[in-house]
Design a protein that fits this description.
Elements (H helix, E strand, L loop, with lengths): L2 E5 L2 E4 L4 E8 L7 E7 L6 E6 L6 E3 L7 E6 L4 E6 L8 E8 L12 E2 L3 E6 L1
Parallel strand pairs: 2-11
Antiparallel strand pairs: 1-3, 3-8, 4-5, 4-9, 5-6, 7-8, 9-10, 9-11
Length: 123
Amino acid sequence: QVQLVESGGGTVQAGDSLRLSCAPSGRTFSRYVMGWFRQVPGQEREFVAYISSSGGMTYYADSVKGRFTISRDSAKNMVYLQMNSLKPEDTAVYYCAATLRGWPTRSDEYDYWGQGTQVTVSS
């Protein structure tokens, strides 16, 4: 069974940092592009960032560029999202996702999803 498990969410103040982790299990995701999305209740799931299978290429939504960093540790089979200078508008449930497709910025391009982890940023 394929699973993605996120962790690291929490409640912080504006300007603080958090690091989210994603641990794939059930198979090796070294061949997969890994992405992060976020969702606020009543809104569509929003693309945040993705990283290529090699880790050599990353892509970010304009709203997080310069503040968030996506990375992966292939040896540990882990994916991370370092979030700095957090803003109240970053409050959402954050999801890790995996796909074999290239340039995947839409949620329907991803095949595997985690259960999500809540990030709340207070002003």
